[in-house]
Amino acid sequence: MSMISYKYAPSKSSEIVGQNLSMSILRSFVINYDRQKSKAALLYGPVGVGKTASVYALAEELDFDILELNSSDLRNEQAIKSFLDSALGQQSLFFKKKIILIDEIDNISGVKDRGCVGAIVKAVSKSTFPVVLTANDIYDKKMKPLLKISQKIQFERVDYSQIALLLSDICSKEGIKFDEKSINSLARQADGDVRAALLDLQICMAKGEIKFEDVVNLSDRKRTQSILQAMAIIFKSSKIENALSALNDVDCDINHIFLWLDNNIAREYKDPKSLAKAYDILSRADVFNGRIRKRQHWRFLAYVNNLLTAGISSAKVARNPAFVDYKQSMRLLRIWQFNMKLAKKKAIAKKLAAKTHVSTKVAMGQIVYFREIFRNKGGGAIADELDLTSDEVSWLSSR
């Protein structure tokens, strides 16, 4: 079986999942390039949401050639200037229109690649072809010159329900058995990253069937193994220098890391002095984390990392020689369960809002009445009218 992500790569703009508005803006930029004030389109957003794929899909749809340059390919001003001057000025081999794609433009470093951004700006300003740049982060100061000449097009994280539809469609075409619960769980754990969802699907398809336990085990392997290793490094390291990098490669949300540490400090540190100091450091890290959430002061993230790693590691009076079985906080499970229930409620409310011409907020308030109808086995017609799934009907009927 070929790689799913390549086999089902979108070939037209309508196949880009969850980015209808962004694709419409990009299409307009490319088609009307001669009349655009901006000399480049800058696609930005999280990894795996379809930025690069959208350019290739649009090029195929419009029958444009595409010339791609990855920012990591050329690392000095003269080389990038020479390449772009040539690429931006030459006609395509068969006189077709073309798009110049510069991928991952934010990977250009401030010192090592000094002069590259300026060279790109100068070359793009003279281009006779549409230029598309992609980036994950556009707020670094080195990006300012590019922002001035570019039309910014944001690509959002994709809603899990749209990812689930894509995964279900692929399974059907591949003849793979699946159930709605497994597909929804696979889509949710991708956290809006379509590429990650396709890679996870490829792994789960190996057995010819998508099973819920395989999806759960996949999630555990991806996240739990690395966080357990990080816990051991933080708690057991004799030098704070070793602990500092413990969280660098951990695929886990920072708020989940707080919960892991909170749940395991008392398992590791048995003497009152170490325990008190570790929790004091954890609370200080939480203060900085709160400032990040409230004020978007992302420079505090370095402080949070230092406190959670070297700080908590240095809190111990002596290293605990005993093996400690680190446990995941049950709060994560309760939060996940709550979010699952809330997500179903929101999905039903959206369908109800669309049919009754009210806001989703108003529809959310009406769900309680519909639950009573379904619990009394009177919701058959409503389920048909709203096109509810079996999971949604089951949720409305549960007590």
What labels describe this entry?
five-stranded parallel β-sheet; Zinc Finger, Delta Prime, domain 3; alpha/beta; 18 helices; 59% helix; Rossmann fold; Helicase, Ruva Protein, domain 3; globular; 399 residues
Instruction: Please give the CATH class of the largest domain.
Output: Alpha Beta
Number of domains: 4
C-alpha Rg, in Å? 25 Å
Helix/strand/pairing category: alpha/beta
Second-tier CATH architecture of the largest domain:
3-Layer(aba) Sandwich
The percent of residues in helical segments reads 55-70%
Question: Separation of termini?
Answer: 44 Å
**Could you name the CATH homologous superfamily of the largest domain?**
P-loop containing nucleotide triphosphate hydrolases
What's the count of strands? 5
Q: Sheet bearing the most strands, described?
A: 5 strands, parallel
CATH topology of the largest domain: Rossmann fold
Tell me the overall shape. globular
How would you describe what is shown here?
The radius of gyration is 25 Å and the shape is globular. It is α/β, with parallel strands linked by helices and 399 residues long. It has four domains: 151 residues, P-loop containing nucleotide triphosphate hydrolases (Rossmann fold, 3-Layer(aba) Sandwich), CATH 3.40.50.300; 51 residues, Helicase, Ruva Protein, domain 3 (Orthogonal Bundle), CATH 1.10.8; 106 residues, Zinc Finger, Delta Prime, domain 3; 67 residues, no CATH class. The protein starts with a helix and ends with a helix. A five-stranded parallel β-sheet has the order 2-3-4-1-5.
